[in-house]
Amino acid sequence: MEIWFLILVSLSLSAFLKAFFNLFFPCKTHKLPPGPLTFPIIGNILWLSKSFADLEPTLRSLVRKLGPMVTLHIFSRPAIFISDRSLAHQALVLNGSVFGNRPSALATSRVLNSNQQNISSSFYGPTWRLLRRNLTSEILHSSRVKTFGHARKWVLQILKNQFDLLSRSADPVRVVDHVQFAMFCLLVLMCFGDKLEEKQVKEIERVERRMIENMRRFNILNFWPRLSKIVLHTVLGGYLIPKNGTVNFMVADMGWDPKVWEDPMAFKPERFLNGEGEAFDITGSREIKMMPFGAGRRICPGYGLAMLHLEYFVANLVWNFEWKAVDGDDIDLSEKQQLTVAMKNPLHAHISRRSRSKV
Ligand code: HEM
Q1: Residue 272 belongs to some domain of the structure
Q2: Which residue out of 140, 190, 300 has the highest number of ligand 1 atoms within 8 Å of its CB and is therefore the one to mutate?
Q3: Is 10 helix (H, G, I), strand (E, B) or coil?
Q4: What residues line ligand 1, using a CB cutoff of 6 Å?
Q5: Is residue 43 in a domain?
Q6: Residue 234 belongs to a domain
Q7: ipTM strictly over 0.90?
């Protein structure tokens, strides 16, 4: 047999074996993303002693030192933090079925999340799919939102659907949860009252730019824990994401990436003025530039409704009040960490002349 043929066969065989092992045994061939040196029990105590506000700068400095994927050993599971937009896209959008899961909750939080049978905490599976379909097609679909006046009727219909579909379940918590869920949806829809008109929505387009810029610049969340209970070991960015590992996305850092956003820390709503009339894609389906509503299969199903609602709310705040810095004219954009990020020196609101003249 020709020697070149033997070389070719052995090279192909080794390439095949490598691909096979990478696919089925990534934990043997890949390492966890880097992380600080930790000692089993002491390491956990150190992390747990940190407040939420301390965790964020610590993580940022680790990302600067170690790269866009970092592992911390908190509790018994490795917690992986991702700060890079394209890795987030690869995980949440391109590999949505792997990263769309939620972890098993602690016994205490199961009381609050109805034994993980509600839409946001349920595992990626048939119950989640059913709840999600019911919410998106029966409540949040634009054709339904337009007829919000009949909200009460839909909610009753949805409740009936849910009861019918889940009637085989012997778990009473599950049913209670669906009642609560439907009532919550009703409340959200009722908030619109009968004041939402298409004309009004158009008038406040300008406000939308300010609002999206606010979401990018002043993040509602610094990092969004997508605590994925990964069913099989998987590989992302050349690193192992272990089975039962948890994955967290550093949302604030993605919205401040200077490669995407010019002068990222400045408040510039006009950056969303697009000459070609193409709207900014907040879902990140093609590329993630910011992700206030998450991305991929578990993206917030209420984002359309939330945007409308916020536009209406923010437009009224701008229309009815004059917002001024307390001391001097300069607005201070520094932040402080509370449960969410808030303005360190909030503005004061004065009733505007426009509103006063109406009174
Ligand atoms: C400004 C307003 C809102 C923000 C910033 C927001 C943000 C988010 C985020 C970040 C997630 C997690 C996404 C992920 O895991 O990738 C989420 C999930 C969710 N949101 Fe929202 N949301 C808002 C309003 C709403 C509204 C109005 C509704 C209801 C109509 C809603 C219903 C949900 C539900 C049911 C989930 C869980 C989805 C799932 O796990 O499949 N949200 N939201």
Answers
A1: yes
A2: 300
A3: helix
A4: 119-120, 132, 188, 220, 224, 226, 292-295, 298-302, 305-306, 310
A5: no
A6: yes
A7: yes
